[in-house]
Design brief:
The structure holds 2 protein chains of 2 kinds. Chain A is an alpha/beta fold. Chain A is about 35% helix and about 15% strand. Chain A has a single domain, classed as 3-Layer(aba) Sandwich (Rossmann fold). In chain A, helix 1 crosses helix 4. In chain B, strands 1, 2, 3, 4, 5 and 9 form a 6-stranded mixed beta sheet that branches. Chain B has a 3-stranded antiparallel beta sheet with strand order 6-7-8, with helices on one face. Chain B folds into 3 domains: about 130 residues, no CATH class; about 40 residues, no CATH class; about 140 residues, no CATH class. Classes of the chains: A alpha/beta, B alpha/beta. The structure holds iron/sulfur cluster (2 copies). The site of one iron/sulfur cluster (SF4) has 8 residues of chain B, from loops.
C-alpha cells in the first residue's frame, strides 16, 4: 500500500522514527482509532496505543513513566467534554491535564512532547489527522533525552 | 525571646490543660543551636507536673506544625471500625500557614478539626536561617538575640557581632505571604501581624518568560544536586501518604537512588501532588539540605491552580479542593485540535 506503512526496520534505515505513546479512552478515542483503521485512513506508524477505561484513568505518573522509558512523545485522548461514558470523567481529567501540561512546560519539557486531545468514536478522520500532527510536532523537536532513564552497565 | 506572644501562648496552653480541654499541646521550644526553635510536644502530665513551660515564640518558629497532626488521627488498617479510644484533643500554636495546612488536612479527613484547639498566632514572619548564615559570611554562628522585635543580633566566631534588620533576613515566603493572620483560629493570641505581601508570582512569571532551553537547564541543574533524602516530602504537611509513590513497589514507579531521571520524576510528581494543597509555607525548601530552589516550582503549581481554577487553599473548610471537582467551562485551550491550522 502506501509507503508510510512499508518501513522495513531491518533495512539500513538512517531516518529517525519517533516513538509515540497514545493513551486512548475505551469509549471514544480508542473507537475513533478503530474507525480510522476500518476506514483505511493512513497515518504514520510511530504510535503505540494503550487503551484505558477513561481519560480520568490517566495519572500524570503514566506520562512521566512513558517519558522515562524513552518515548519521544505522549498523547492522551478522551471523549469530548460532555460526551464521557462516565458522565464527567474527562472533565475531572481535564483539570489534571491542564496542570500537568503547564507544569511540564514550566520545567522545560517541550510542549510538543506531551499533548492532550478529544476524539469521538465517529471521528476516524480527526484521529488520523491528530496522529499525523502529533508525530510531525515531535519530529520537529527531535528525540527526547531529558527525562529518559539511562541504564548504565 | 522577648516576644510577648510566648507568655500568651503559655498562658493559653496552661488554661486549656487546666480546663481539661486538651491532652497535648504542640508549640515550639528553644533549639539547642542558635537560630533554631524546635517543635515541642507538651503533654497533660508534663503540664500538671508544674515544671516551667518550655514553650517559646520567636522568629525561628518556621516549621509547619500541621505536619505532625495526621498521625494522631489515623485509623490503622485491619482494626475494628470503632476506635477503642476517642481521638486525642490537641492544642496547637498555629501561624497562618499552619492553619491553612490544617484546613487542607481537614478536607482530606486527615485531622479532625473538632478535636483541635487552634491557638492562632498573628505572624510577623520568620527568619530565614540561610540568609543569616550568608550574612555571617559562612562563619560559625555562636548565638543570637532579638532586639525590640526588629533587629537580630548575631554573635559570629572570629568577627564583630552582626546587627541585622529583621526585614532583611525574613524568609521569602513570609515576605510574599498574603495571609499573615490565621483566620478562623479558636483562640487568637493578641499581637500585630505583618503587612500582607503580594503572593510572589513575579518570579514565576519571570521564569515562564525564559526560553524552553533555559528553563530546562535550570530545572535540570537544580535537581542534579538532589540526594534523594526525601526531606522535602517528610517536612511537607500535605505529604501524609502512608505509601508514597516514590517507594511503592507494586507498580514500581521510580528507583530510590539518585538517578537523574528518577530525581526529576520524583520532584515533578511530588509537586504535582501538592496542587490545590500547597500553602506556600516553604517547608520543603527549608528542609532541603542541598538548598534546591524548590520554592520556584511549588509556587508555579500554586499559581496555576489559582489562575486556572480560582482556588487558593486558605481558611475556608467548605470549599472543595480543585482536583476533586470540575467546571464545565474549565479552560480547554491546551487541547490539541488537529483541525485548527497552525
Ligand atoms: S509525594 Fe505524593 S505520594 Fe508521596 S507522600 Fe507526597 S503526596 Fe503522597
Ligand atoms: S530535600 Fe532536597 S535533596 Fe532531599 S530529596 Fe528533596 S530536593 Fe532532594
Amino acid at each position: 500500500m502506501s509507503d508510510t506503512l512499508a518501513i522495513d526496520l531491518r533495512a539500513a534505515d538512517t531516518e529517525w522514527h519517533p516513538v509515540i505513546v497514545a493513551f486512548l479512552c475505551n469509549w471514544c478515542s480508542y473507537a475513533g482509532a478503530d474507525l480510522a483503521g476500518v476506514s483505511r485512513l493512513q497515518y504514520a506508524p510511530n504510535v503505540r496505543i494503550i487503551r484505558v477505561p477513561c481519560s480520568a484513568r490517566i495519572n500524570p505518573q503514566f506520562i512521566m513513566k512513558a517519558l522515562q522509558n524513552g518515548v519521544d512523545g505522549v498523547l492522551v485522548s478522551g471523549c469530548h467534554p460532555g460526551d464521557c461514558h462516565y458522565i464527567s470523567g474527562n472533565l475531572v481529567a481535564r483539570r489534571k491535564f491542564a496542570l500537568t501540561k503547564k507544569f511540564l512546560e514550566f520545567v522545560g519539557v517541550e510542549p510538543e512532547r506531551v499533548q492532550f486531545s478529544w476524539v469521538s468514536a465517529s471521528e476516524g478522520r480527526r484521529f488520523s489527522d491528530l496522529m499525523n500532527k502529533v508525530i510531525a510536532d515531535v519530529r520537529r523537536v527531535g528525540p527526547a533525552k531529558g527525562l529518559k532513564k539511562e541504564v548504565s552497565s | 525571646m522577648t516576644d510577648s506572644r510566648a507568655g500568651e501562648i503559655r498562658k493559653i496552653a496552661q488554661g486549656l490543660f487546666a480546663e481539661g480541654k486538651i491532652e497535648l499541646f504542640l508549640g515550639f521550644q528553644q533549639g539547642s543551636l542558635p537560630l533554631r526553635s524546635r517543635p515541642c510536644f507538651v503533654t497533660a502530665e508534663g503540664a500538671a507536673a508544674g515544671v516551667d513551660s518550655p514553650l517559646v515564640w520567636d522568629s525561628f518558629c518556621a516549621n509547619n506544625l500541621a505536619a505532625y497532626l495526621p498521625k494522631y488521627y489515623e485509623n490503622l488498617p485491619n482494626r475494628p471500625k470503632k476506635r477503642d479510644k476517642p481521638y486525642p484533643r490537641i492544642g496547637i500554636a498555629a501561624k497562618a500557614c499552619d492553619l491553612r495546612s490544617i484546613v487542607a488536612l481537614t478536607k482530606e479527613k486527615q485531622v479532625r478539626r473538632e478535636s483541635l484547639v487552634v491557638v492562632g498566632v498573628p505572624c510577623r514572619g520568620m527568619i530565614d536561617t540561610r540568609k543569616v548564615e550568608a550574612a555571617a559570611g559562612g562563619q560559625e554562628i555562636l548565638g543570637h538575640e532579638e532586639v525590640d522585635g526588629d533587629l537580630l543580633r548575631v554573635a559570629v566566631r572570629g568577627a564583630e557581632p552582626l546587627s541585622l534588620p529583621r526585614e532583611q533576613v525574613l524568609q521569602d515566603c513570609c515576605l510574599e505571604c498574603r495571609h499573615p493572620v490565621p483566620e478562623g483560629a479558636d483562640v487568637l493570641v493578641p499581637g500585630q501581624a505583618r503587612k500582607p505581601g503580594d503572593g510572589g508570582y513575579a518570579r514565576v512569571k519571570e521564569f515562564e518568560a525564559k526560553s524552553q532551553a533555559e528553563r530546562w537547564e535550570y530545572f535540570r541543574s537544580e535537581l542534579s544536586r538532589c540526594i534523594r533524602c526525601n526531606a522535602c516530602r517528610q517536612a511537607c504537611p500535605t505529604c501524609w501518604c502512608k505509601e508514597c509513590f516514590a517507594e511503592q513497589t507494586d507498580r514500581k514507579w521510580i528507583g530510590v537512588g539518585t538517578d537523574a531521571s528518577d530525581k526529576m520524576f520524583f520532584q515533578i510528581i511530588r509537586i504535582f501532588h501538592q496542587a490545590g494543597r500547597c500553602v506556600e509555607c516553604d517547608a520543603c525548601y527549608r528542609a532541603c539540605p542541598m538548598g534546591i530552589d524548590l520554592r520556584l516550582f511549588t509556587k508555579k503549581i500554586v499559581k496555576d491552580v489559582e489562575e486556572t481554577f480560582g482556588y487558593l487553599p486558605a481558611f475556608d473548610a467548605g470549599e472543595l479542593p480543585p482536583l476533586t471537582t470540575f467546571g464545565e467551562k474549565d479552560a480547554d485551550s491546551f487541547i490539541t485540535d488537529p483541525d485548527k491550522k497552525g
